[in-house]
Amino acid sequence: MRLSVKVIAATAIAVLLVPAFNLFASEAAKPATSATPAAAAPAAKPATTTKTAAAPKASTASAASTQEITDAKASGKVWVNTSSGVYHKSGRYYGKTKAGKFMTEDEAKTAGYKAATKE
User: Fold this and answer.
1) pTM to 2 decimals?
2) How many angstroms separate the most distant Cα atoms in the chain?
3) Domain extents for the chain?
4) How far lies 38's CA from each of 11, 35, 41, 43, 44, in Å?
5) How far is Cα 77 from Cα 92, in angstroms, rounded to an integer?
6) Residue 18 pLDDT > 80, yes or no?
7) φ and ψ of 87, to 5 deg
């Protein structure tokens, strides 16, 4: 009996709040109007562009390169899987997970990451 009362109360609250939220959401979704049509036109691209050298791949964006892995192992760093919150000292996942970065073991512990139990 108690559960059904809680469900009914939660449903009643949702029914009351959802229309109010939608009212505010629809106001925020409306584009701002401009007094002049020129301001609403998209900005033109510059005629000339300069190419810049591509930045080196950061190890936090994806799996590390073989050279980065070799350098990190030599300096005693661990691979932190930022998605799972686990760090690897070596093994199958060292430098291989999509979301991760190298850091010292002390930095990983201080940041709240846990050591992998199965290496």
Assistant:
1) 0.49
2) 72
3) 2-29, 66-115
4) 48, 9, 5, 10, 12
5) 15
6) no
7) -115, 150
